[in-house]
Amino acid sequence: MKTVRSPAENTGLAPITGRDPEILILGSYPSRQSLAKGEYYGNPQNQFWKIVEMLLGIERTLPYAVRTSQLMAHRIALWDVLATCARNGSADTAIRDPVPNDIRGFLAAHPTVRCVVLNGNAAGRYYARMNLGFPGKILPSTSPAYARMTLAEKGQQWAWLRTRHIR
User: Fold this and answer.
1) Distance CA 84, CA 91 (A)
2) pLDDT digits (tens, 9 = 90+) for 127-154
3) Torsion of CA 5, 126, 37, 24, to 10 degrees
4) What is the pTM of this model?
5) How far is CA 84 from CA 5, 9, 20, 96, in A?
6) Which residues contact 164 (CB under 8 A, 6 or more apart)?
7) Confidence of residue 69 (pLDDT cuts 50, 70, 90)
């Protein structure tokens, strides 16, 4: 099977960042649904927004612009480790020819970031390869493909963010 780079997958999504972010949450690369919608965690089966609702009280049913605005009010930024890749489907295991985002530049431009969170092992692996010298905390993937943990178990692990003094 040949790996195809579709036009929608030439570039990932721009970072979501407000003023003085303290936490940067990095996924690996957006799913096809997320790219088509232009929204982080746009697959309704992805548990990211459910976990955000549990931890921060940001209702997952709110419009995307409202959810991201409220996330930024908590001084949380969203982005992906990869800027582009070739991939059939949306699985992280199908990623080929990964090209990283300029995370180093993001951190330099946002010196208030004190915590990088990696959404899943794939994001953690790609982040580690960048050798930024800025530690990252890998939390369980919110992807529907990661079914080894229940939503409640993932929520317990993601509650680690509370120790980072989320506002």
Assistant:
1) 14
2) 999 999 999 999 999 998 888 999 999 9
3) -160
4) 0.90
5) 9, 7, 26, 10
6) 22, 23, 114, 115
7) very high
What is the rounded CA–CA span in Å between residue 82 and residue 30? 9
- 89 pLDDT higher than 80: no
Residue in 34, 5, 66 with CA at minimum distance from that of residue 142: 34
Q: What angle do CA 7, 83, 33 make, to 5 degrees?
A: 55
What six digits make up the tokens of 67?
A: 């959810």
90 vs 105: which has the higher pLDDT: 105
The count of C-alpha atoms lying within 13 angstroms of the C-alpha of 37, restricted to the half-sphere facing its C-beta, is 14
Q: Respond yes or no: is residue 46 known to be catalytic.
A: yes
Q: How far apart are CA 108 and CA 144, in angstroms?
A: 33
Model confidence at 101: pLDDT above 50: yes
Per 3-state DSSP, what percentage of the chain is helix, strand, and coil (rounded to 5)?
Answer: 35, 20, 45
Catalytic residue among 43, 46, 101, 119, which?
46
Domains and CATH numbers, the chain: 7-162 (3.40.470.10)
Q: pLDDT at position 146, please?
A: 87
Instruction: Over range 84-92, report the average pLDDT.
Output: 75
* Residue-wise burial string across 88-105, b where 16 or more C-beta atoms lie within 10 A, e elsewhere: eebebeebeebebbebee
